């Protein structure tokens, strides 16, 4: 299983894990600040996305978490800071529960450990397998960003929409199946990594109540809600988001 990844910088490793329908490109605003602060950034394409392999689905969250453990093994990294957004955050929650020795800190952002909407996720999987990614890509941009941000950044919004449109349909569908029915709530209290949870005040896809559940369940987790941020708050509120991540990973140096 090839997991496409890119590394930058030197120092303690920070792994960045993307949302469904995106690639490692979504972390563009975070790479330079992390490198400038002395971290080695490892960003990767979740299986079924970008340039990673697209094995036939369905995938499970254990498959996605296992890919991260293998990636760390390949890079000979014993343990890393892990930052995941949305599907990436679900992967991070699984890692915190099942591979604690590999995780120094966790940032679980714009995410959920029990997304619900099972019919919606299985329906999306069916739709993209039957019709391709076009309609989903058109809808994704409106879930990822507020209207104001799209109006102010039309070219970037179009570029990010294209990222979803070019996601392999089988990969997207199989990740929908990893999300559908997911419930990592019961073992939240077993997570021992220092954890930062970030949600967006305008995130209709995974509202901040989902982040609150995670923060309530993980011992001593910090919870922040970013204003003027829909689902891809790492872009829409890049400065504030990156600042919180830096504060979190630097706190455990
Ligand atoms: O529907 C979307 O694109 C929002 C989303 C929910 C889980 C995820 O990874 O993305």
Overview of the molecule:
With 253 residues, the protein is of the alpha/beta class. The chain has a single domain, classed as Alpha/Beta hydrolase fold, catalytic domain (Rossmann fold, 3-Layer(aba) Sandwich). 46% of the residues lie in helices and 16% in strands. Strands 1-3-2-4-5-6-7 form a 7-stranded mixed sheet, with helices on both faces. Helix 1 packs parallel to helix 11. It binds the ligand O=C(O)CC1=CCC(=O)O1. The ligand O=C(O)CC1=CCC(=O)O1 binds next to helix 5.
Helix content: 40-55%
* Broad shape: globular
Number of helices: 11
Proportion of strand residues? 15-25%
Question: If you compute it from the alpha carbons, what radius of gyration comes out, rounded to the nearest whole angstrom?
Answer: 16 Å
Per the CATH scheme, the topology name is: Rossmann fold
The CATH architecture is 3-Layer(aba) Sandwich
Q: How many beta-strand runs?
A: 7
Terminal Cα span = 32 Å
Q: Report the major sheet.
A: 7 strands, mixed
Pick out the low-confidence regions: none
Q: What is the structural class?
A: alpha/beta
User: Please, what is the average pLDDT?
Assistant: 98
CATH homologous superfamily classification: Alpha/Beta hydrolase fold, catalytic domain
Overall tally of domains: 1
Query: Going across the major beta sheet, what is the strand order?
Result: 1-3-2-4-5-6-7
The CATH class designation is Alpha Beta
Named once each, the bound ligands are:
the ligand O=C(O)CC1=CCC(=O)O1
User: SSE order in H/E notation?
Assistant: EEHEHEHEHHHHHEHEHH
Organism: Amycolatopsis endophytica
Keywords: Hydrolase
Domain AB hydrolase-1: 13-236
Protein name: 3-oxoadipate enol-lactonase
């Amino acid at each position: 299983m090839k997991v496409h990844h890119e590394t930058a910088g030197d120092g303690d490793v920070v792994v960045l894990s993307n949302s469904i329908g995106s690639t490692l490109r979504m972390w563009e605003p975070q790479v330079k600040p992390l490198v400038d602060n002395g971290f080695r950034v490892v960003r990767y394409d979740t299986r079924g996305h970008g340039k990673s392999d697209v094995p036939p689905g369905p995938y499970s969250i254990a498959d996605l978490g296992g890919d991260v453990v293998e990636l760390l093994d390949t890079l000979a990294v014993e343990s890393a800071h892990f930052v995941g957004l949305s599907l990436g955050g679900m992967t991070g929650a699984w890692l915190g529960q099942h591979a604690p020795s590999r995780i120094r800190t966790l940032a679980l952002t714009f995410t959920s450990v029990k997304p619900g909407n099972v019919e919606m996720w299985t329906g999306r999987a069916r739709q993209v397998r039957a019709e391709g990614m076009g309609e989903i890509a058109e809808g994704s941009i409106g879930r990822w960003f507020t209207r104001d941000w799209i109006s102010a950044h039309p070219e970037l919004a179009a570029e990010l929409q294209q990222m979803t449109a070019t996601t392999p349909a089988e990969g997207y569908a199989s990740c929908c199946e990893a999300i559908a029915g997911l419930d990592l709530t019961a073992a939240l209290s077993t997570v021992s990594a220092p954890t930062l949870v970030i949600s967006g005040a305008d995130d209709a896809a995974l509202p901040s109540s989902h982040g609150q559940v995670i923060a309530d369940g993980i011992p001593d987790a910090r919870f922040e809600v970013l204003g003027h941020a829909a689902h891809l708050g790492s872009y829409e509120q890049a400065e504030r988001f990156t600042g919180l991540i830096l504060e979190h990973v630097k706190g455990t140096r």
